[in-house]
Amino acid sequence: MTEAQIKETIFKVLGRIAPEAQLDKLAPNDNLRETLDIDSFDYLQFLIGLNEELGVEIPEADYGQLTTLADLIRYLSARVR
Amino acid sequence: MPSLGADMKAGTLVAWRVKPGDRVKRGDIIAEVETEKGLVEVEVFEEGVVDQIFVQPGEKVPVETVLAMIRPEGMPAVSAPAEVPQAAVKEHVPAEAGPEVKPGLEVSHLPGQPPQRRIRVSPLARKLAAELGIDLSTVQGTGPMGAIERADVERAAAKRLAEKAPTPSVSEKPGPPTMEKPAVTEFQIGMRRAIAAAMSRSNREIPHYYLETRIDMSRALRWLEAENQRRSIKERLLPAVLLIKAVARALGEVPELNGYWIDDRLQPQEAIHIGFAISLRQGGLVVPAIHHVDLKSLDELMEALRDLITRVRAGRLRSPEMTDATITITNLGDLGVEKVFGVIYPPQVALVGFGKITEQPWAENGMIGIRPVLTATLAADHRATDGHQGGRFLEALNRHLQEAAKL
Q: Chain A residues within 8 A (CB-CB) of chain B?
């Protein structure tokens, strides 16, 4: 899976959680939760959505590494088959 | 029209889920009503057969207006309502069958009416559709179970535009940002008004007192971390679940904080239904109740929370959830704030506030260390309780959070 496909999947899942957000305006190093106003419940739903779409299991201990779009793409690229 | 929250004055009947002749039992959802807080599913508290329906979809009526009549099983159907003794007819609203009902007038267009096709639609989409003059029955929904969402209405509007005026080949997608704004604003005005009314009443009538305590969360979080490590991502628990359960446990010890202040006296409630403040993405908040928190396991609570938040954000709540909370929790832990001083939601007598868990210096056994610390606050009604009971509650809350495994 290419990085572009992963990014597309991330946007798809984010779009379900924050339908009004203008995702194309999101910079790679923006803090996702702060920029899009995602609370801890929605964040968990977001990770569950990624898990369903990509099959990547994200341990809770890794949440801290996943604050920006760039982080997520890097993390998921390394793990998606 | 039941009152679906403090200071609700009127509601729009959106759809019936029953028709005359249908048998209903307590707890069945019989109608959908649009309020300032979104779409609410109305439950029935009677058992019997739907006799007549007085309010048609689309009609906005004041609270306490009779929506329908339900007759007990076995009673003969009402052919001419005026002749039937009042006792034989029950309506599902707790309020009196007010004088505004004129069955004789309505009866002509009732029987034999084709049942309404049920359309699932989010409140936002409904508002937008009304504003744009889009007939919802012509819109294809793409949301859960075919629900119509805002994007669907926008698509329909765009399609209509395209049909009316042949689209110049340049822009296939006429994104309508200008249409979106008024709908949101109108919805927000209603919600802000409802919040203002309830909170003004609270500040006017309730003599609040406030207490706060700092709670060392290191044991609870360590337990949660170990627990979540064993779980798949879908089964993981949020810290909020521990807090909600601990509140229920502490209320078991100080039941005076769980109830209502009505008619100059405290009416403690046996059931613990915790109202959980949930913010909406488009602004505003709703506070639906999680029922019987004390009887639910942490897993059941997480599931209940998931279900509730999902439905709140999709604008689908059931009527009891909006009205029967016995205490409220406001959890601002996702924001940067350390503590919240809440405003009690009348007629409740207490509100528990949680701030963000932050690392703080903590002294224990003559040693100073760094611990994750949560500030819990209690806003309580001084007519019902005093600081002594409030303090006992916070102390119990702390104690239960030190033993998360037992929650």
A: 18-20, 37, 39-41, 44, 47-48, 51, 57-61
